[in-house]
Amino acid sequence: MAAADTPVPTDPPVPELADRARACADRLRDADRVLLASHIDADGLTSAAIASTALARAGIDHEVVFEKQLDAASVAGIAAREYEVVLFTDFGSGQLDVIAEHEAAGAFTPVIADHHQPAEPDTEFHLNPLLEGLNGASELSGAGASYVLARALEAPADASSTDGSTDVPTDNRDLAALAVVGAVGDMQDTDGGLVGANEAIVADGVAAGVVEPRTDLDLYGRQTRPLPKLLEYASDVRIPGISNDAAGAVSFLSGLDLELKSEGEWRRWVDLDDDERRTLVSALIKRAVASGVPAARIDGLVGTSYTLVDEEPGTELRDVSEFSTLLNATARYERADVGLAVCLGDRDAALAEARSLLRNHRRNLSEGLQWVKTEGVTHADHLQWFDAGSRIRETIVGIVAGMAIGSPAVDRSKPVVAFAEKNATELKVSARGSHGLVRQGLDLSAVLREASQSVGGDGGGHDVAAGATIPSDRRDAFLAAADALVGEQLS
Ligand code: C5P
Ligand code: C5P
Ligand code: ZN
């Protein structure tokens, strides 16, 4: 029994994964040095930050690298680094076929904390919600899997410190804040809040005093956007006369009994008190009802916001959703180092750099979405597609495809497949569906893997969102294969 003043070990956050997490943690502790490899998006960056912090706290020597994607070439590059153990976060499961070859050759032992659809064969140290019947697209992200691992790496509460230092936390629950950023960055909160294992992580974050969930207006930009922009850019809800209508948003706000400016500047959602927030939300709902917005979309106006209480109010870092966009703005532009530094606590040079990258990212998203709306999509029997060529960067074409799904340019009854030029000989493919289509049998991970492999490429991902790389001259053959596969799944 622990004495009253020694910390009592808390329960594992996701009991289903406890055994796998313990095995992975033990293997990492046994390693002399670990190479930590992660993915270049918000979830991958937060995964790396969580895993790196936990390794450091456990005294495990390691180095961090990022890869745009894991394929034969990048895994070979990792193997050439000659680390005894490689920890893959937010990818790895989908590339087990490639990884297994290097493992068999004795190049390294893989430890994987991921949430993507696993490829064959399996491996010994593998932490993935899908292996225990949990949903990898909605219940646990890569950062969540890394968090589960981090908790398993905590020093046992009764172990006495060997080097006498006392400033190393033995409890990794503070890392739940980053895990929530990763989950929201992967759009795991699409039904208004986090569910399943993610909810247990939120509870850890609340217990650790770092995360605060609350029922809130569910629009992007609560911390940083001036009120008119918050409403104007809320394109998912589409309230006539407000969404995509700068003058309409201002005129709607002016009709409310609200102080709209402070010292000449527009106030933001974060600047309003509870009464003012209620006034705005009820007026918005009333307006949506009067304009005939469908009830389901009106429900979407309210959801759960997750606030990182240690971050400064009115900054991108305070709201997990804005935080995740800031991270994508770094890693998707070959500056994962900047995003990682922000995750690890740099609030000076790295944050300033990230903010400047964010302006560029926002402009690219807006121009990309505009391009899709103007050009429109082409309809096949069971899917719709567009080929952006070099007009949309391949690292953000998936984000644009996801945003397009929420816009009138796209038919919600079919998945969207987007292409962008990757290099002179290859195309990047990104596919996005909806939860409704997934309930009808859609699995884009299987579609993209099979259709890309049938034309000499490779891909994978999640049922609702997946990606691939294919040879540029095989686009139409890929589309025909993908269309047929989606048709079979939805029949
Ligand atoms: O690589 P990774 O798993 O981290 O990325 C998940 C991708 O799936 C993200 O781009 C996210 O936007 C997308 N997604 C989606 N809709 C969901 C869940 C995830 O578009 N409901
Ligand atoms: O790149 P994109 O955002 O479209 O990726 C959607 C999902 O598919 C992500 O989870 C990503 O990790 C996965 N993906 C994959 N293999 C690829 C490309 C993307 O597993 N070749
Ligand atoms: Zn992820």
Q: Helical region count?
A: 18
Hetero ligands: cytidine-5'-monophosphate, zinc ion
Percent helix, as a range, is 40-55%
Shape category: globular
CATH class of the largest domain: Alpha Beta
How many domains make up the coordinates?
Answer: 3
Strand content: 5-15%
Task: Name the strands of the widest sheet in spatial order.
Answer: 10-11-12-13-15-14
CATH architectural group of the largest domain: Alpha-Beta Complex
CATH topology of the largest domain: inorganic pyrophosphatase (n-terminal core)
Distance between the termini: 58 Å
Mean pLDDT level: 94
Largest sheet: 6 strands, mixed
Radius of gyration: 23 Å
By DSSP, the count of extended strands is 15
Low-confidence segments: 1-8
Structural class: alpha/beta
What do these coordinates show?
This protein is of the alpha/beta class and 491 residues long. The protein has 3 domains: 15-213, inorganic pyrophosphatase (n-terminal core) (Alpha-Beta Complex), CATH 3.90.1640; 219-300, no CATH class; 376-490, Diaminopimelate Epimerase, Chain A, domain 1 (Roll), CATH 3.10.310. Helix content is 41%, strand content 15%. The protein has 18 helices and 15 strands. The protein has helices at residues 18-30, 42-57, 72-79, 96-104, 142-152, 176-185, 197-207, 227-232, 246-254, 274-290, 295-299, 320-331, 336-343, 349-375, 397-405, 435-439, 444-453, 475-490; strands at residues 34-39, 62-67, 85-89, 109-113, 125-127, 211-217, 261-262, 265-266, 302-308, 378-379, 384-387, 416-421, 426-432, 458-461, 465-471. The strands form 4 sheets. Strands 10-11-12-13-15-14 form a 6-stranded mixed beta sheet. Helix 1 (18-30) packs across helix 5 (142-152), helix 2 (42-57) runs antiparallel to helix 6 (176-185) and helix 12 (320-331) crosses helix 14. The longest helix has 27 residues, at 349-375. The structure holds cytidine-5'-monophosphate (2 copies) and zinc ion (ZN). One cytidine-5'-monophosphate (C5P) is lined by residues 69, 94, 116, 398, 430, 458-462, 465-469.
